[in-house]
Specification:
The complex is a heterodimer of chains A (326) and B (107). Chain A has 326 residues and is α+β, with helices and mostly antiparallel strands. Helix content of chain A is 28%, strand content 31%. In chain A, helix 1 runs antiparallel to helix 7 and helix 7 runs antiparallel to helix 8. Chain B has 107 residues and is an alpha+beta fold. The chains are: A alpha+beta (326), B alpha+beta (107). The interface between A and B is large, with 101 and 67 residues. Strand 9 of chain A pairs antiparallel with strand 3 of chain B.
């Protein structure tokens, strides 16, 4: 007999968090959802840029002065800094001023409901790798100092990391999944016969799937998607999306509409997906930062799978295209 | 498995306890994040090389998907990059088939 499958969801981080438990009693899932809500509230008190009292908002307002932060905040910030360096700045959370200059200085629902009146700004690129080199983290004092003028948004990576956090909390379940606004972690037994099936949204037709991922009883798989077709808003006669190219300070104009990455964690998958989307008009990145595969959906309807390849030496092999369809 | 409490009915003491319990687990989470940072840039190395699926080759994943086209199978490595954690299949959905409830999407 198939194990019971139950789900609980709640709003958080301007999206929906959903827990799926396989082989878990309803009462236990209720309790798990209660803990997840508590942790989500903690997460937002750290990482929300829309809460003036959050650790992130206080850091962004510090303008070059040291700011206190807890270990979890500092840990994710260190992860972000590593990602900036390893992606040569393609992943860059310091694009926040550029994002706000385009009007995205409030929740997306409010932004869509009341389009901002803005003057199209001069490009405000991110700080670049050199700017991030100036960030100082003092773990002993629990302090971080950004260079004057640097302000950051950890929203995307924070969602992936929150999915990983919950997956760690509930890893003892026979099987389960965490969905934080489309950033996923699945582990253990799936709700089907023995597997997990996860659709990859087709950005051209969001009601459909471009592909379906099928994972057998897995230890853990993290999946994240970045796309230009959501979090869009109008300002005057122009339409913008939220994925800013750090080199120009404007929404990326590459040919990809979405990138989905698979990795052991949703955090890595999030970094890989966003970096590849930002750099879609450039030669492929030399590797996927620990992610194993990425599915690219282009503006003209192509879907392509790229993956890392085996290497017998220390050299980095280029990504390999293993499947492509129109 | 440790038991969590619903937020709505939890007293302050219960909430504080839940947060203390969570704090210990978060320390492990931070350590695991630090571990994955170390794996950035490591090219996937696998004993079982990935491959696109040949049309003539039957899908190796059972009856549940035999009516769909498996286009690729890809290993997912462990966080330390040292072993294949699992192998996933990519399937081209066909009209009329039931879409998975779980979806990854841009957010």
């Amino acid at each position: 007999m198939a194990p019971p499958v139950s789900r609980r969801s709640f709003p958080a981080m301007s999206t929906t968090v959903e827990l799926t438990g396989v082989g878990i009693a309803d009462r236990d899932l209720d309790q798990a959802a209660g803990l997840a809500r508590l942790l989500a509230e903690e997460w937002e008190r750290r990482f929300s840029r829309f809460r003036p009292e959050s650790q992130l908002s206080r850091l962004n307002a510090a303008n070059g002065e040291p700011c206190s932060a807890d270990d979890t905040f500092l840990g994710l910030l260190e992860t972000a800094i590593s990602a900036v360096q390893r992606t040569s700045g393609r992943f860059d959370p310091s694009v926040l001023p550029a994002l706000e200059a385009l009007g995205y200085d409030r929740g997306i629902d409010r932004l869509k409901a009341a389009p901002p009146s803005i003057r199209i700004p001069e490009p405000l690129p991110g700080a670049g790798v050199s700017g991030w080199d100036l960030v100082q983290i003092d773990r002993d004092k629990g302090q971080v100092t950004l260079p004057p003028g640097m302000r950051i948004d950890l929203g995307g990576i924070a969602k992936g990391a929150f999915a990983d956090l919950l997956a760690g909390e509930f890893a003892a379940w026979p099987g389960g999944s965490v969905d934080v606004g489309g950033d996923l972690v699945v582990w253990g037994a799936g709700p089907g016969e023995t597997c997990w099936a996860i659709g990859i949204e087709d950005p051209a037709h969001p009601e459909r799937d471009a592909l379906v991922i099928q994972a057998p009883e897995a230890s853990q798989v993290g999946i994240a998607t970045s796309g230009t077709h959501r979090r869009r808003w109008r300002a005057g006669s122009q339409e913008f999306h939220h994925l800013i190219d750090p080199r120009t300070g404007l929404p990326t104009r590459g040919g990809m509409r979405s990138v989905t990455a698979l990795a052991p964690t949703a955090t890595v998958a999030e970094i890989a997906a966003k970096s590849m989307l930002i750099a879609a008009d450039e030669p492929p990145l030399s590797d996927l930062f620990g992610a194993s595969v990425a599915a690219l959906a282009s503006a003209n309807g192509h879907v392509e799978l790229l993956t890392s390849v085996a290497s017998d030496n220390d050299g980095i092999e280029p990504l390999t295209s293993i499947w492509r369809a129109t | 498995m440790e038991r969590a409490r619903p937020a709505g009915s939890a007293s302050r003491a219960v909430q504080e306890r839940a947060e203390r319990e969570a704090g210990a687990r978060r320390a492990l989470f931070i350590a695991s994040v630090a571990g994955l940072v170390a794996t950035f840039g490591v090219v996937a190395a696998s004993d079982s090389p990935l491959r696109a699926i040949d049309e003539d080759r039957p899908p190796p994943i059972g009856e549940a998907v035999s009516s769909r086209r498996v286009v690729a199978e890809v290993p997912i490595l462990s966080v330390d990059g040292q072993r294949v954690e699992t192998v996933v299949h990519f399937i081209a959905p066909e009209p009329g088939t039931t879409a998975p409830r779980l979806r990854t999407r841009a957010s």
